[in-house]
Specification:
Helices cover about 30% and strands about 20% of the residues. The protein has helices spanning about 25-40, 55-65, 80-90, 100-105, 105-115, 130-135, 220-225, 240-255, 290-295, 300-320, and strands at about 15-20, 45-50, 65-70, 125-130, 140-145, 155-160, 180-185, 190-200, 200-205, 210, 230, 260-270, 275-280. Strands 8, 9, 10, 11, 12 and 13 form a six-stranded antiparallel beta sheet that branches. A four-stranded antiparallel beta sheet has the order 4-7-5-6.
């Protein structure tokens, strides 16, 4: 328990933090959740840290929090499932609701919604993993990724000249679903934009240029110390920066997201092509995470970001919104 400052803004509030969980992103969620729980305690709240299992509804009913801070990542915690449990329990909770969470987690459905809203997304489509493992379904280079996972889990980059697709896709140990998304590889820069869903409309914070030490922004590059370098602000033309920020705001709105999101984009600086890859409805809140870095860059320290996320829930409820 950290010391509580005088006149703490969350004094008297009881907040349950969901962290860990059963997904492939459990380790990241434990770090995100611990950082947020520590911040909530510094802000004066009473915090109950809950690593949810099958009995999460009973645990939350017994805990009786005023609000649930959802720091889960990946399947079940970020795809609308735990959001449905919280809706059933009538507990206010952070981040996006059931439908936006489910939509954003399903890459194929999210791409359809985003394209209809005017967001530029990559081509490609859904394929059975065994078909993709058998032969190239797109000419290399292309990217293969699970349709409903985050944090670049289970992602393969097939380079030009590759003789065979990734054999791992046909392995009995594959646990990421039978359908995989296959998209043309967009060369260039890996960009990220965090968005805060404010009452007057989504507000993009900044654009980060992510430079992975491994050459590909995979799970290790995202969360390992030294795995990537975040260049903030991204050294890109002002026009490209503005396009990236507007695209992230449009994506946030098109999916119906709430709270803080992070959009991942690719920018081909030779051909001036900017595409949005996906929207993360519960971006990481670890020491190396992009959203807290961007918030700090625009003058919002970590604790204030966590406070805003909590206060945003009450602002939406008072305005008649969900959660």
């Amino acid at each position: 328990m950290t010391d509580k400052p005088q006149n703490a803004p969350l004094a008297g509030r009881h907040i349950a933090v969901l962290l860990g969980g059963p997904s492939s992103e459990r380790k990241v969620s434990l770090v995100s959740g611990s950082a947020c729980a520590d911040a909530l305690e510094r802000l004066g709240a009473k915090v109950s840290r809950i690593d949810p299992g099958k009995d999460v509804a009973q645990v939350l009913t017994a805990t009786k929090p005023d609000l649930v801070f959802n720091a889960l990542h990946g399947e079940w915690g970020e795809d609308g499932c735990v959001q449905g449990v919280l809706e059933t329990l009538k507990l206010p909770y952070t981040h996006s609701g059931v439908l936006p969470s489910a939509l954003a987690m399903d890459k194929a459905k999210a791409k359809a919604v985003l394209a209809a809203a005017g967001v530029i997304v990559p081509g490609g489509g859904l394929y059975n993993r065994h078909d993709v493992a058998r032969d190239h379904v797109l000419p290399p280079p292309y990217v293969v990724k699970p349709n409903a996972e985050g944090s670049s889990v289970g992602v393969f980059l097939v380079f030009e000249g590759a003789n065979r697709p990734p054999e791992e896709l046909a392995s009995p140990a594959w646990t990421y679903g039978e359908e995989v998304m296959v998209e043309p590889y967009i060369r260039g820069l890996e960009l990220a934009v965090a968005v805060m869903g404010e009452p007057n409309g989504p507000r993009a914070l900044a654009v980060t240029d992510i430079r992975a030490s491994t050459g590909f922004y995979d799970y290790e590059a995202k969360y390992s110390e030294g795995g990537s370098i975040h260049v903030l602000p991204a050294p890109i033309p002002d026009g490209v920066r503005d396009r990236a920020m507007r695209m992230a705001e449009l994506a946030h709105s098109a999916l119906g997201c709430q709270g803080v999101t992070r959009s991942d984009l690719r920018y081909d600086d030779i051909n001036d092509i900017l595409v949005l890859l996906e929207v993360n409805t519960q971006p990481g809140m670890t020491p190396t995470s992009l959203a807290p870095e961007q918030a700090a860059h625009v003058g919002i320290p970590f604790d204030q970001l966590v406070l805003w996320i909590v206060e945003d829930v009450h602002a939406r409820r008072n305005a008649g919104g969900t959660a």
